Amino acid sequence: MAEEKKLSKEAALFEAAGCLKCHQAPCQENCPAGIDIPGFIFKIKTGDIKGAKRVLYDKNIFSATCAAVCPVEELCQENCNKNQVSRSVFIGQLQGYAVEEGGDIDYPEEELTDDPRKIAVIGAGPAGMSGAYRLARAGHRVDLFEAGDRPGGTPYWGIPEWRLSREILEKETKEIEKHLNSVNFNTRIGVDIQVEELLKDYDALLVCCGLGDGASLRIKGAELEGTVDAVKFLKAHNTGENGVPSPEGKVVLIIGGGNTAMDAALAAKEAGAERSIVVYRRSWEEMPAWKAEIRKAIDSGVEFMLQTAPVEIVGRDKVEAMKMVPTRLVREKEGRRPRPVPLEGSEFVFPAGLIITALGQMENPLVEKLQDQEQVFFAGDAAGGDATVVQAVAGGKEAAEKIMVFFREQKERGV
Ligand SMILES: Cc1cc2nc3c(=O)[nH]c(=O)nc-3n(C[C@H](O)[C@H](O)[C@H](O)COP(=O)(O)OP(=O)(O)OC[C@H]3O[C@@H](n4cnc5c(N)ncnc54)[C@H](O)[C@@H]3O)c2cc1C
Ligand code: SF4
Question: Do 214-361 and 3-101 have the same topology in CATH?
Answer without folding.
Answer: no
